[in-house]
Amino acid sequence: MNAYVQPYSRQQCALLADLAVEALIAEANLTPKPALVDQRGSGAHDDLSLVLMEQSAHSLRPMFLQMAQAAFLHADCLQTLREVIGSIGRAGEAAMLETTQGVNTHRGAIWALGLLVTATALAIHHQSPIRAYDLCQHAGKIAKLEDRFIPQQPLSHGQQVQQKLGAKGAKAQAQEGFPAIVEHALPQLHYSRQVYGNELAARVDALLALMSILDDTCVLYRAGQVVLTRMQKGARYVLRCGGYATVAGQCALNFLEMDLM
Question: Does Protein biosynthesis appear among the keywords (predicted)?
Answer without folding.
Answer: no
